[in-house]
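Hi R.,

Here are the chain sequences for the assembly we discussed:
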Amino acid sequence: MSEFLLEIEGLRKAFGALVATNNVTLNVRVGETHALIGPNGAGKTTLVGQLTGEITPDAGRIRFAGRDITGLTTAERARLGLARSFQITSIFPSFSAEGNVALAVQATEPHSFRFWHPAEQIQRLREPARKLLADVGIAPLAQRTAAAMSHGQHRQLEIAMALATRPSMLLLDEPMAGLGTEESRAMSALLGGIKGRRHTILLVEHDMDVVFQLADRISVLVGGRVVASGSPDEIRNHSEVRIAYLGEDEDEFAGALNAQG
Amino acid sequence: MKLGRRELLLLILLAIAVVLPPRLGIYYVRFATQIAIYGMAALSVDLLLGYTGLITFGQAAIFGVGAYAAGMLIVSGFTNAFIAWPLAILASMLATLVIGALSLRTRGFQFIMVTLAFAQMLYYFAQSLRNWGGDDGFSTRRRNDLGFLSLENHETFYYVVLVLLVLVCWLTFRLVRSEFGMVILGIRDNERRAAAIGFPPYPYKLAIFVIAGGIAGLAGALMANHAKFVSPSVLSWQLSGELLAMVILGSANSLIGPILGAAFFLAFRDMLSDYTEHWMLFFGPLLVARVLLMRNGIWGTLIRATSGGETPREPKVDFPETGERVAAAKPEAGV
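And here is the predicted structure of the full complex:
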């Protein structure tokens, strides 16, 4: 197997005259945390959609673990080991927290056409689910109906669900979105712990503190194109990146850069 | 075994169903039979509406396939129910497999329209069967038998239908709590999420569609036996709508709710149609009142009334990504 787990090659997607993904080539190495940043409207969401299979690209290829997955469905990609969290909370609201994760554990089995035994009593699913809830720090809420949990807890639950499928790669779509200060700190510690376990992560994130703290490599998306790709230090000093961000969000980016540098 | 409120309430309802109708006379035995049959059909609609989030407007057509299959078999001399009813179920499941395979490629509003279109096709196909009475339908003249047991007696037939209804309830109860059931509920809650963790929605939706079709087919076969008469009206879209009304009246996302809904619907129609043929004029507002006043339907209200005002937790969180969900999210699979 090559050193790259995810290889994106010449990917292109246009909506009418708007080219949202413009000839994107990007590689994620095995075991690295690769951050994808870019100002609003840079095409991050469209790119994520193409990686998960919800949006079909006009041109280009996506290879995952050495296999061309460009034509595969979302579920097929998930079963190959590409797990994701959602930018906007996406859980099963009527299930308990444990039920949410147990269903994700169940998804790793070859099929679920088993019609007889009550799922709640199957320890093969429930035990890993409880363990994962503990890992992300919401074990006491296992029996809580997911809809009744807070936004921050939902985000933790999403991470547990993504990990439950035992993925070879995690695609985290803005895991910090909408979190308060305290919740942010907990989430960034959680992500640090996941990174420490040598998971391969593609992190799409706005929070520059988290990006520069966690990422081994960073790619910058502007106007649908990757304008820079490199180590945090290289990105920090990259002129085109500075220009792109200065036009968009001067204070935030400059502030984050200076704080780091 | 410790009996909860829910179980106790179910036992009382079952006891009423067993004891009451024969005491009230033959008219009510036949009326209760009708309730049990429509209740079974409504339950199949609820598996799709309440548990999977699929609104189908074609379930009556599947019910009709079961009725026609059973009716044709009786007339052709296959009177043994152990042969005829499984064949009727099989015919309905095959019909749903074809309809589902095509219609489940669409979603939401399109899905409703496609199921309706298929139902209308079957309706007009039944009308075109000239050897089977065409528009007028045909009389089966007698019922199936259980080999050792004739079902011509209305009471005997009622109890057989009741046993089958309880059996179907028990099987679906197991089904919705199984691993398969969890996938179905997951798809209802959030289809996009279900796909993202690795469940392809299509084969699971198709499977529950076919299972629900089998149940509707059995109900149809029983209806052919009950009325000893089959006509295209059993496939009509009006019946599909009535089944949906029964489910909504009784409570979607519970297995007993649709049966209670069928009972109220039929009782209401029976009473009002003595006074006016425009009974729908009064039924409409009732349905609206149910939606406005009893959020969990008749069954939900019964449960709450017997539990001293304890409100079942019903999520009120707004999930933008689950806009297609039909039934309000409730705690996992109630009875």
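The interface with chain B takes residues 52, 54, 73-76, 78-79, 83-84, 86, 88-96, 99, 102-104, 106-108, 112-120, 122, 125, 145, 147-148, 161, 164-165 of chain A (CB under 8 Å). Residues 19 and 203 of chain A are 22 Å apart (CA to CA).

Let me know if anything looks off.

Best,
T.
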